[in-house]
C-alpha cells in the first residue's frame, strides 16, 4: 500500500462498528456522513448489515433490561405510588418506538452516509469460497473454528470481485488479522486497523463533501447564523442599486422614468446543498433561496387629448414596492475546507435567476399637487 494511493471505495469491518460502541449517529461513525455525495463509494455488504443489526438489537435489549432493573430498584423511593411506577415502565420500556429501533437506526445510517449495500451473493463464487476453506487460505485460519470465519470470507471475496469488475481500489478497515492476511494477497483491497487513519486518508479528496455535510447539519440545527449573515451581506452588495423593469397599473397613460432597487432579506428554501465546483482552497455550492427586495420607481403620468390627439403630462410620481422571488444562488467559499465553518470566508454570491421586473401597483397623480 502506497501513501499516494487514492482509494475509490471504503469497507469497514463489523469489529470497527463494535469498537466504536455502535454509535452510528456520532463520534467517528457519525463522520461517515461525508460520503453521502462523495465520489468515494462507501460499501456496506449485506453480511455486515445483518451483523450490525443483530449487535444493535443485543445492545438495545441489554440497555432495556438495565433500565428496567434501575426503575424497579428506584421503585421504593422515586415511584412509591404503584400507578406511577407502572406509567414509568409503560413510557420508557413498552414504547412501540423501541420495537424495530435497530432496523430504523441502521436504515437511517445507510441513508445519511449514502452507503451502497452490496449483495454478496451477486459477486461470490461458492466453489472459490469452499476452495479457500479447505485449503486454509486467508481469511480462513489453519486452526480454530473456521466456520466462524465464513462471514469474513464471504464479505472479502465479494468485495474483491466487485472491485475487480468496477476497477476500483478499496480501503478496508479492520483489526482482524485474517482480514489483513487476505488483503496482502489482494490486488484491489488494502487494509488498515484504525478508522481515524482511514478517514484521514479521505480528508483531502472528501474535504468539500465533509464541509457540505457539516454545513447542512449546522443549517438543520440553526447553528449557521454566521454563514447566513455572510450570504446576506454579499446579496446586499450584489443587489445594491439594481434597476428592474417597471410595471404598474393606472387609468392614466404612464411611462417609466427609472428605477432603483436594493436587498431586504432572504432565507434558504432548502438546507440541501450541492457542490458545483471545488479546489483545494475554494468551493462553489448551490443553494435554493427566497430573496426579498425593495425598489423605488419613477413614473410619468399623462392623459390623452382627443382634440390634438396627443398626450398631456399630468404628474410625475414615485412608487415603492416590495417583492419576493426564488432563485438558486452560487456561493463561493474560500479558506481551509477541513477547518471550522466559522473560519471560512464567503468571497462571492451569484444570483442565478435575478429578478428582472417589479410591479409597482396602481399609479395615481398626487392630488396634493393640485391643492
Mean pLDDT across all residues, rounded? 84
State the share of residues found in helices, binned by percent. 25-40%
Rg value: 32 Å
- The total strand number stands at 12
For the largest sheet, list the strands in their spatial order: 3-2-1-4-5
List the helices and strands in order.
Answer: EHHEHHHEHHEHEHHEEEEEEE
Structural class: alpha/beta
Large-scale geometry:
elongated
The span between the termini is 90 Å
Task: Looking at this protein, list some descriptive labels.
10 helices, 29% strand, alpha/beta, 371 residues, five-stranded antiparallel sheet, five-stranded parallel sheet, 12 strands, 2 domains
Summarize the structure.
This is DUF4935 domain-containing protein. The protein is built from ten helices and twelve strands.
Describe, in plain words, how this protein is organized in 3D.
With 371 residues, the protein is an alpha/beta fold. The protein has two domains: 9-206; 224-369, no CATH class. The protein has helices at 14-19, 27-30, 46-73, 82-92, 101-113, 126-134, 150-166, 177-184, 195-220, 225-239; strands at 9-12, 41-45, 116-118, 170-173, 189-192, 245-249, 253-268, 274-278, 282-305, 310-334, 345-351, 357-362. A five-stranded parallel sheet has the order 3-2-1-4-5, sandwiched between helices. A hairpin with a 3-residue loop joins strand 8 and strand 9. Helix 3 packs antiparallel against helix 4. The radius of gyration is 32 Å and the shape is elongated. It comes from Azonexus hydrophilus. Pfam families: PIN_12. Residues 11-179 form the DUF4935 domain.
Amino acid at each position: 500500500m502506497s501513501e499516494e494511493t487514492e482509494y475509490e471505495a471504503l469497507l469497514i469491518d463489523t469489529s470497527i462498528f463494535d469498537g466504536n460502541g455502535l454509535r452510528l449517529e456520532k463520534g467517528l461513525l457519525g463522520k461517515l456522513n461525508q460520503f453521502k455525495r462523495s465520489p468515494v463509494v462507501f460499501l456496506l455488504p449485506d453480511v455486515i448489515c445483518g451483523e450490525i443489526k443483530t449487535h444493535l438489537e443485543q445492545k438495545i435489549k441489554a440497555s432495556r433490561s438495565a433500565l428496567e432493573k434501575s426503575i424497579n430498584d428506584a421503585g421504593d423511593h422515586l415511584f412509591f405510588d404503584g400507578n406511577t411506577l407502572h406509567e414509568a415502565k409503560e413510557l420508557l420500556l413498552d414504547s412501540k418506538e423501541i420495537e424495530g429501533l435497530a432496523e430504523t437506526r441502521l436504515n437511517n445510517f445507510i441513508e445519511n452516509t449514502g452507503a451502497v449495500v452490496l449483495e454478496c451473493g451477486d459477486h461470490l463464487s461458492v466453489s472459490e469460497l469452499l476452495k479457500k476453506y479447505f485449503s486454509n487460505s486467508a481469511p480462513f485460519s489453519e486452526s480454530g473454528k473456521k466456520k466462524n470465519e465464513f462471514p469474513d470470507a464471504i464479505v472479502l471475496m465479494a468485495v474483491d470481485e466487485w472491485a475487480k469488475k468496477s476497477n476500483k481500489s478499496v480501503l478496508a478497515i479492520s483489526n482482524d488479522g485474517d482480514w489483513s492476511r487476505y488483503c496482502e494477497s489482494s490486488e484491489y483491497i488494502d487494509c488498515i486497523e484504525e478508522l481515524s487513519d482511514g478517514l484521514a486518508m479521505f480528508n483531502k479528496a472528501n474535504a468539500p463533501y465533509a464541509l457540505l455535510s457539516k454545513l447542512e447539519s449546522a443549517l438543520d440545527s440553526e447553528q449557521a447564523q454566521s454563514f447566513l449573515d455572510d450570504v446576506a451581506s454579499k446579496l446586499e452588495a450584489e443587489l445594491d442599486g439594481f434597476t428592474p423593469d417597471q410595471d404598474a397599473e393606472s387609468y392614466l397613460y404612464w411611462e417609466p422614468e427609472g428605477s432603483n432597487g436594493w436587498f431586504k432579506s432572504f432565507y434558504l428554501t432548502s438546507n440541501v446543498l450541492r457542490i458545483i465546483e471545488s479546489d483545494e482552497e475554494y468551493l462553489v455550492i448551490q443553494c435554493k433561496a427566497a430573496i426579498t427586495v425593495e425598489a423605488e420607481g419613477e413614473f410619468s403620468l399623462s392623459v390623452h387629448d382627443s382634440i390634438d390627439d396627443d398626450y398631456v403630462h399630468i404628474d410625475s410620481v414615485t412608487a415603492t414596492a416590495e417583492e419576493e422571488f426564488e432563485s438558486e444562488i452560487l456561493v463561493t467559499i474560500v479558506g481551509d475546507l477541513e477547518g471550522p465553518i466559522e473560519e471560512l470566508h464567503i468571497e462571492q454570491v451569484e444570483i442565478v435567476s435575478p429578478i428582472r421586473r417589479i410591479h409597482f401597483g396602481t399609479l395615481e397623480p398626487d392630488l396634493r399637487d393640485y391643492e
